[in-house]
Every structure is written in structure tokens, then in C-alpha cells.
Amino acid sequence: MMNVQNNHTDAPCAEKVPGFCATRSKSGTQGIHSKNLEEFLPLVDAASIAWIDYIVDDFEKEAAKMATKVGFSESIVKKLLKIPIDPSRARGGYEDFDTELGLLLPSIHVERFHVTVEPLLILLKKNLVLTIHTSELTHFYQLHRYAGAFLKKLPEKLQQTDWLTLLLMRIIDENNSMNFEQVAEIDEASDDVSRDLADTTISRSLIGGKIYQMKHALVSYLLGLWATVDALSSLRYGDADLITDNPRLLNRIGSLVNEVHVQIGLAENLSQVLASGLEVLQSIYANQLQLINNKITLMVGVLTIIGTALLVPNTIATVFSQTNVFQFTSADTGWYLSVIIGSTILATAAAWWWVKRIGFLPKSPDQE
What percent of the chain has pLDDT over 70? Predict the structure, then answer.
């Protein structure tokens, strides 16, 4: 009967300690936190299997240094990190050096439409799984608590590579689960965009900016998931010496890949909703432009009628004012006014009929 020794501190304090190590040996399982990576080495040497999780401040500069402290080659880390880390770009990597194996997986964090992709480095050799990441990745605090129990439950009959594969899958599954939860943040934020799309008075620049942010967040999230698929696909066939060749366990790796594909499908569905929203937005803008166009058309029609109504009687009055041709007396006032008023009425009616016929007078400004 194995004893379980749990020397780690309380969770709030443990989160401030950069290093955690869980081991299983003949004497039992144990898990400890420490600031010094070297303190874990004696435990690893005596263990049948061990997991070290370590937090670094500068991933690009410190990852290789910490990996070499526990016996990994610097070359495998540098090969995985050959492209500089870019928080806006998701990357996945896989390297097999026979006696050691390396994976680089994206760890996604979403706050509304702001997506941050942090690197998670996973290294394997004979009896050890090492994970290195920055403090922005908080996925494994809960796993620290149950690491000893997980190692204790590993079946004795399995081979060393089976144990390594099971521990690796548990770590990957924890990272995937936290990544999958992030889409809910995008979905929640997109509900605000949907509400704005329903408001026809919303500012074009405001809603356009929100839709761009949503689209960019979805693209960044999908890139993170595809990077995960690329890295995991290299594991599923068990070609590496450190990975099991047990078909049942390899199928479980395939299940991890399938789960990522399901999440990709959900994110793509959300992207289709975004595309529908863009169509709605385009329709709103088209309606607004049509409304403005109708108002301008109505104004042109009204001005045409008014201009015609004033131009015709004014022209007649100008002609009659030629005294060298027309000699008016007070007796001519009646028929003169009749001509002016009649011409005004006829000209206005004719102008209205013509403007109405060519469509310059919609019944209302919002009528197309």
C-alpha cells in the first residue's frame, strides 16, 4: 500500500511559488512546491514517474535555461521556439529527439474580444514530464491538487511509456478544457453586438469596430485551436519512442484531437453568426442611405413645384409690364389678376403631375 505525501502549501500561497513537482515512487506519491527547480531533481531521480510544472517570467529567455537544469537538451527547446513568441499569433510545435520529446501548445485566454495566446512547453524523457509556461497561464493550479492522486491510480501493469502517455494526455486535456471555455467569453460579448445590430440608430463606426474586434477574436481563437490540432496529430500514431504503442491509449489521443475539431466547429458556427450580422448591418446601412436618398428626392420634387409655381406667373407679369406694348387701366385689373392666379394654379398642377410621374414624390421619406 503506497503512502501519499502532500507537502505543498495552501492554494493561495502555492500560486505564488513558481515550481511544483509531483512524483510516484516505490514509497508512494508526493507533491511539493518550491522556488528552486534544483530541489526537485532528487525526487525525480528516485521516482518511477514525475511531473514538474514551472513558471517563468520571460518565456523566450528562460524556457531553455530551466529545461537544461532538469536534463533536457537546449537544442530541443530552441528548435521549438525557433520563431519568436508573438502574443497575437498561435503556434504549435512537435519535436522528437528519440530520448526526449517536445510539444509547444497554445494556451488561450479571452477577455471579451481581447485574445491572448500564451505558449505552453511540454517536454518528456524516460520518467519525467516537464511543463514550462508564464504566470498568465493558470490552468494547472487545480491539477496540482490532484496530481498525486492521479499518479497513484496509474495501473501497475502498464509500461513506462504508457504512464508517460497517460500523464501527457491528462496535462493536454487540462489545457484543452481551459481553452474550450474561452469561447464562452466571445459568445457572451457577441450578444452585445447582436443587441447593437438590432438598433437601426446605432453609429456605423461604433458597430463596425465591434464587429471587427469580434471577427479578430474568433480568428485568433481558431488559429489557437488549429495549432493544437497540428501538434496533437503528430502524437496520435505513436511513432515516437517515448509515446505508447498501445492502440487503446492511442485512440484516446485521437479523442483529444476530435474534441478540438468539435470546438473548431462551434467557433466556426459563431463565425457564421457574425457573417449574418454583417449582412444585417449592410442592410441597415443600405436602408439608411435609401432613406436619405428619398428625403433628398422629395426635397427636389417640392422645390421643383415651388420654383415652377413662382417662375410662370413671374414671367407673365414681366411680359405684361412692358408699357410700350401693353397699356393698362384700372379696368384691366380683374383679368390681369385672373391670368396671374390661373397661370400659377395651372403651372403648379402641371409641375406636380410631372414630378409625380417621374417618381420624385414618394408618399413618405422611407418609401423606396
Answer: 74
